[in-house]
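Box S1 | Example of a co-folding query
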Amino acid sequence: MRRTLGLTCLFLSTAIFLYAADGAWLHRISHADHDRTSPFGNDPAQLQNAAAAGAQLFQNNCAKCHGSDAMGKYSRPPIISERIAHASDGDLFWLLTNGNPWKGMPPWMMLPAKQRWQLVAYIRSLNLNTPDSSSTSQEKPQ
Ligand code: HEC
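Box S1 (continued) | Returned holo structure for heme C
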């Protein structure tokens, strides 16, 4: 009886581990990676171009898991959220480079760094109106 209960608990905690996106990846990022800034800087025109290219990359590579509206699908989390609004550009670049394979997020280092930064610019543009996004290191374009 105890054993069955123990196994049930183990099963449940494994299920939660597998299915809840909890942002644990953010705690694995070094200060240097966290502080890394986009090569597109804060120039609104450059960022807008980068985000447009990133939107295309997102539809080609990411939409099948995160949804073409980036609102998430099944157990795959939305890309528009308070967590993402709070993450730095460096955090997002780190996640795209390394992925979170144990949780089902593939690494994307086969995409050139420039394309990964374009994806970061797109993700950032999606989160400009998310609550508290003003606390990120990015300036909002005027
Ligand atoms: C095979 C499915 C899959 C594909 C394709 C995929 N992702 Fe993910 N992604 C996931 C899963 C699953 C997670 C949740 C990981 C976790 O639990 O921390 C995730 C997490 C994320 C997160 C962090 C979300 C959060 O709230 O913690 C971001 C940002 C992200 N993905 C961006 C992308 C981008 C950009 C692409 C395309 C280059 C992409 N993903 C492609 C499955 C996928």
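The radius of gyration is 17 Å. Residues 14-18, 133-140 have pLDDT under 50 and may be disordered.
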